[in-house]
């Protein structure tokens, strides 16, 4: 059986509201983390299309020159009045389910993501109707997949302890190494430092290196 091609759904919150648990986060850093995730995902073997679901009105313009010729097709879906991570992912699933491809949900907070590692994870996922990858703590979820025959049963349950919930729902747990960049999500400053040791994407690195904007006294 030939390996499936994939449509990746990437939910991304607006830059000025994202990553509230990350100390001293700026909108530029939050958006850079998402951009590095999307660019890396677009270059992963087997990925034919990315559907970014977002409430960020500027993200499509930022991504357009970065996900270019030779990469996966890029579509940006504005989520409108839809609020919350799981509802926005469901919106993406409904928009992509007629693509005829396998579907994967990749959270947009993997700034160290390497395309080859994501491609390997998707290859492993293709052996199961539905599969899931845990974050580096082993409790959350960074990757959720379904083959075309199982998309009707793809029900996102992101949030606290989501990995266990996805496994109970019937997703096969994929065993990736502790240093897999597919598992290197960033929610806290310690997570960011860990991702930095693995090797950050260029946009996140640049955002971290930028001097803080001067404050203006009243």
Automatic annotation (TrEMBL):
InterPro entries: CofC, Nucleotide-diphossugar_trans. Its EC number is 2.7.7.105. Keywords: GTP-binding, Nucleotide-binding, Nucleotidyltransferase, Transferase. It catalyses: phosphoenolpyruvate + GTP + H(+) = enolpyruvoyl-2-diphospho-5'-guanosine + diphosphate. GO terms for molecular function: GTP binding; phospholactate guanylyltransferase activity. Residues 198-218 are annotated as: Disordered. Phosphoenolpyruvate binds at residues 141, 159, 162. Pathway: Cofactor biosynthesis; coenzyme F420 biosynthesis. One of its GO terms (biological process) is F420-0 metabolic process. It is an enzyme of class 2 (transferase). It holds the Pfam family CofC. Gene3D superfamilies: Spore Coat Polysaccharide Biosynthesis Protein SpsA, Chain A. Guanylyltransferase that catalyzes the activation of phosphoenolpyruvate (PEP) as enolpyruvoyl-2-diphospho-5'-guanosine, via the condensation of PEP with GTP. It is involved in the biosynthesis of coenzyme F420, a hydride carrier cofactor. Belongs to the CofC family. PANTHER family: 2-PHOSPHO-L-LACTATE GUANYLYLTRANSFERASE. This is Phosphoenolpyruvate guanylyltransferase.
